[in-house]
From TrEMBL:
It comes from Callosobruchus maculatus. The keyword Methyltransferase applies. It catalyses: 5-(carboxymethyl)uridine(34) in tRNA + S-adenosyl-L-methionine = 5-(2-methoxy-2-oxoethyl)uridine(34) in tRNA + S-adenosyl-L-homocysteine. One of its GO terms (biological process) is tRNA wobble uridine modification. This is tRNA (carboxymethyluridine(34)-5-O)-methyltransferase.
Amino acid sequence: MNQKCAKKMERKLNKLKHVVFKETGIVCSLNPTNNIVICNAGLVNGLSEETILEHFSVYGTLNNIVLVPGKSCSFVSYVELDMACKAYEALNGQLPIAQDNKPVYLLYAERLPQHSIDSRKVWDELPGGLVILDDFITENEEKLLLSLCCFDDSLVSQMKNRQVRHFGYEFRYDNNNVDKDKPLDEKIPKECDFLWKRLHENTDWKQFVPDQLTVNHYSLGQGIPHHVDTHSAFEDPIMSLSLNSAVVIAFKRDDRDICVKLPPRSLCIMSGETRYDWTHGIIPRKSDVVLSNTGSYTLLPRGIRVSFTFRKIRQGECNCQYTRNCDSYIRKNNSELQIAASEIERLHVIDVYENIALHFNETRNKPWPNVLEFVNSFDVGSVMLDVGCGNGKYLGKNKHVFDVGCDTSCALLDVCKKNGFETFLTNCLQLPFKDAVADGVISIAVIHHLASEERRLQAIEEMIRILKVDGRALIYVWAKDQHKNNEKTSYIKQDRKNRKSDTDVVVADENSEAPVSKGMTLPVHVNRTQFKHKDVLVPWRLKNQQNTVEDTFLRFYHVFEENELSDLCSKLENVEIERCYYDQGNWCVVLRKTLIKNS
Ligand SMILES: O=C(O)CCC(=O)C(=O)O
Ligand SMILES: [Fe+2]
Ligand SMILES: [Zn+2]
């Protein structure tokens, strides 16, 4: 390096030193230690453990890799000082792994950040009901099984997706189910029978004999997206035999992510909690990062992997206790909801708001900026309707428009009236207006209280009906995902200490249910936690002036998945979705009314 370059590098590193300190609180310098800081590449620029390991393990054994969420720096730690020095000399200012293929800049650090990467990603603890039996079969048996079903390798490697073959019954990926009345001619090969004898002799699974087999053939770089094997399709357990190559499979539940190495010839038994409540998936990549027994990170290259997944077809519906991923439970609830929808809305929405109106009013006075911006975007003289206006938080905000609110709660409309707003009483399913009279409609946190998809669609249809062509509507609904982009929403973040009003404290246990109508029950959501179900009862603890709890009410909510709201809106022929976004734990759309397309 000439002197000019050296000066430039020094200035660059000095600047980055401050950036790293600001981002992580870690002091770094040019004094060699075992820990190297990659100052300008991290999770935000798409750097992965795998890439780090690929380039840095060339110089020695790593005992830690730390990627900090949301940051553009990362850390690598070597077991020996001279390894770190060698890597530093070779890679500083050279290695183009940062964004735009710019070289990485390196410094040394005294310590690593406390909160490492994915501190959620764990290796030592298996989810409940997961068992891995190493060396379940011998190498000869592995060869025999591999020979049972040939995939043409030259053909396979050109395909984007893994190759799949079914025996006994076909698993259809279009509807995630099996045709139970259409068994295949090709049964599970007899050559597999020794597996069950061995299983019965060596484990507590004394009865299990599968009647369905899926063979997955993964070429290099292929994986399988996270999923739960459909509850109603297969019994418990599910067993997967790994052949030819090891792979890392991940199990996820809530914000936990457990990585498990499946060596070749091992049998992975997924039962109970693992089979029903955790998703499993294999990231598509060519190698995996594994934590060895000695605590060092190594790169485990993958080869072609074939897995034999054995299952037993379930007759009838599933009635497991793990309801969130249970298609049987969801289907039953949905059909019951269809029938009972209007009654549930009356008991668990309309009556509840009538009862909690005054208390609700005290807790709802801060308008959301994006809604205000929408309201303020209308011209002088525009006609605007707030469907489900509640206490009138968004009425009278734009002084140049003529705005009217409507709601099902007389008590909330009284609050509006006291503030001098125009309102009327109505249900959002039928708006008492002629077609095409309004320039704008807002409906904030309303249609998630409707208990069937048909009714939610009907409410949107009504809003569009009363809009003039080119009129715009803004709709907000509560999102099922309250952890979007790794940020918890204020709903999740608010804990007891900094909560202004103590209305939403935890009153439900995990998995508790409450009756709603005609023998039907719905899950009761635990406040301030992620949603487990889409149709839930959310507790409201009613407090009096003295701030003591008088009663608990359960409000019905249908919380929305990503894209669910926009998919629903797309069903209407005369709307264009102008914008779709996530705001304060809600999914939001801006719609524009159009003429009916091609008519
Ligand atoms: O390849 C594996 O081990 C898992 C396959 C799997 O999860 C499935 O086919 O449902
Ligand atoms: Fe699976
Ligand atoms: Zn189930």
